[in-house]
Write a structure and sequence with these properties.
The protein is mainly α and 99 residues long. It has helices spanning 2-23, 34-43, 45-56, 85-98. It contains four helices and no strands. Residues 12-57 form the Cardiolipin synthase N-terminal domain.
Length: 99
């Protein structure tokens, strides 16, 4: 039973590393071209995965970007509807109209 769990852990680690190599942009892979990293991780699963995490993976994490205009690109703090004066004014007007 412990052997099976260890095998599943190694398989999960290998799949994680392989997926990480494949989804990393070509220009962000360190020390070797991305295609060589894929071959190393596939051909030498455990050692290749460890080498990828230590030597090939980008040092900085990639930021998550939503398509379109980003509030963070403009240097503004994200605001909720209750912080927006236009929204509050419109809400107040709609509540008075309903009475």
């Amino acid at each position: 039973m412990p052997g099976v769990l260890l095998g599943l852990a190694v398989l999960a680690f290998w799949l994680y590393s392989l997926f990480d190599v494949i989804t990393t942009p070509d220009e962000e892979a360190r020390n070797l071209p991305k295609i060589l990293w894929v071959l190393i991780v596939v051909l030498v699963p455990l050692v290749g995965s460890v080498f990828w995490l230590l030597l090939g993976r980008p040092t900085r994490s990639r930021p998550f970007h939503l398509p379109g205009r980003s509030i963070m690109d403009k240097g503004e703090a994200p605001r909720g509807p209750d912080d927006d004066p236009d929204f509050l004014r419109d809400l107040d007007r709609r509540m008075r109209d309903d009475d």
